[in-house]
């Protein structure tokens, strides 16, 4: 089977990594890239042996699939145009700035692949937890980072917490019944640190904290099951576990760490996208419907904080 012709639009921090991986990914052929900042696009194209196109149109004309890594406010406009041309699309998270824009992307999808870049879903440690097939009773997540000027077009909920909301729904697909949240702006015009309590119809409860103004990075996910506990470190790709065991001498707790084969999550994400576009069986990816659900919960967190939703603009 011939390689899938793929292009990348938007060469910021993530777009550069998409370009790096796609330039050498089996099953894919990087046609080229485009960025509004021609000097940036040309430099990255030269670095990875690709071409920089002066505009989206000539690039799209040569592609079968596109990775869209532009600001969130441009996702719906450019994304629907790409899908309506019959091309497969992977758009970075969040899928869009509003549910209406997300629905426009879903409506334009047709029989094309619409994947969304929830890269933490592809963390091997997350996949190991999902493979357990056991919905948690309580979930606690901490996603703390130092301040960076990137992604300030959205608040910390749509920037960081949405990763953990998507994973929460993957672990437990039951409906959200209650959302409580608080958050404040610190160094930007949008909320920079937030905490949310999300209750699900299954009875599970999640306590999620996200910050982009912390002194150090911390990315943890803790799951409490009826007779087991798992602590996941996203950065180290490790899972420490403990379980309750009944023995002749009574009940006791023993270690139950999960084995994790480390890998680069973004590479796994792109492998899954390319495989889906090529019609190959196998890897799971975050589709448009799953990403819309994560966005809906993230917007519910924003409403609970009294935060206005992201305003969209033309592409």
Give the topology, please.
Elements: E1 4-9, H1 13-22, E2 28-34, H2 38-47, H3 56-60, E3 65-68, H4 75-84, E4 88-92, H5 99-108, E5 114-117, H6 124-132, E6 138-144, H7 156-171, E7 176-184, E8 193-200, E9 205-211, E10 218-225, E11 228-233, E12 238-247, E13 250-255, H8 265-277, H9 288-305
Parallel strand pairs: 1-2, 1-3, 3-4, 4-5, 6-9
Antiparallel strand pairs: 6-10, 7-8, 8-9, 10-11, 11-12, 12-13
Helix pairs in contact: 4-5, 5-9, 7-9
Element-level helix/strand string = EHEHHEHEHEHEHEEEEEEEHH
Number of helical elements: 9
Number of strands: 13
Question: Spans with pLDDT under 50 lasting ≥5 residues?
Answer: 310-315
The CATH first-level class of the largest domain comes to Alpha Beta
Q: Would you tell me the overall average pLDDT?
A: 93
- For the record, give the distance between the C-alpha atoms at the N and C termini, rounded to a whole number: 35 Å
The profile of the biggest β sheet is: 8 strands, mixed
Which class best fits the helix and strand makeup?
alpha/beta
> Looking at the structure, what is the overall shape?
globular
Structure, explained:
With 315 residues, the chain is α/β, with parallel strands linked by helices. It has two domains: 4-119 and 266-284, NAD(P)-binding Rossmann-like Domain (Rossmann fold, 3-Layer(aba) Sandwich), CATH 3.40.50; 121-263 and 297-305, 2-Layer Sandwich (Dihydrodipicolinate Reductase, domain 2), CATH 3.30.360. It has nine helices and 13 strands. An eight-stranded mixed sheet has the order 7-8-9-6-10-11-12-13, covered by helices on one side. Strands 2-1-3-4-5 form a five-stranded parallel sheet, sandwiched between helices. Helix 5 (99-108) runs antiparallel to helix 9. The relative contact order is 0.17. Residues 310-315 have low confidence and may be disordered.
């Amino acid at each position: 089977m011939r390689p899938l012709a793929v292009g990348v639009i938007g060469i910021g921090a993530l777009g550069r990594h998409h370009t790096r991986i796609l330039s050498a990914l089996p099953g894919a052929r990087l046609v080229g890239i485009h960025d509004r900042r021609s000097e940036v696009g040309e430099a990255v194209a030269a670095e990875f042996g690709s071409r920089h196109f002066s505009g989206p149109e000539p690039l799209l004309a040569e592609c079968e699939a596109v990775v869209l890594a532009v600001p969130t406010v441009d996702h719906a406009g450019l994304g629907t145009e790409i899908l309506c041309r019959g091309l497969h699309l992977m758009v970075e998270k969040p899928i869009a700035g509003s549910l209406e824009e997300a629905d426009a992307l879903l409506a334009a999808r047709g029989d094309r692949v619409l994947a969304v870049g929830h890269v933490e879903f592809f963390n091997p440690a997350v996949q190991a937890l999902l493979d357990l097939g056991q919905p948690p009773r309580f979930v606690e997540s901490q996603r703390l980072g130092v301040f960076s000027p990137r992604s300030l077009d959205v608040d910390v909920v749509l920037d960081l917490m949405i990763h953990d909301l998507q994973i929460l729904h993957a672990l437990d697909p039951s409906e959200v019944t209650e959302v409580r949240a608080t958050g404040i702006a610190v160094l930007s015009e949008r909320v920079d640190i937030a905490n949310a309590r999300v209750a699900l119809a299954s009875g599970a409860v999640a306590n999620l904290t996200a910050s982009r103004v912390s002194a150090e990075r911390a990315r943890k996910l803790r799951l409490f099951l009826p007779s087991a506990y798992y602590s996941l470190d996203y950065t180290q790709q490790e899972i420490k576990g403990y379980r309750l065991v009944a023995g002749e001498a009574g009940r006791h707790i023993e270690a139950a760490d999960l084995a994790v084969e480390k890998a680069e999550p973004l590479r796994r994400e792109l492998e899954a996208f390319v495989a889906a576009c090529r019609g190959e069986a196998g890897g799971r990816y975050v589709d448009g419907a799953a990403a819309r659900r994560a966005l809906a919960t993230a917007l519910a967190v924003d409403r609970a904080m009294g935060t206005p939703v992201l305003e969209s603009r033309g592409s």
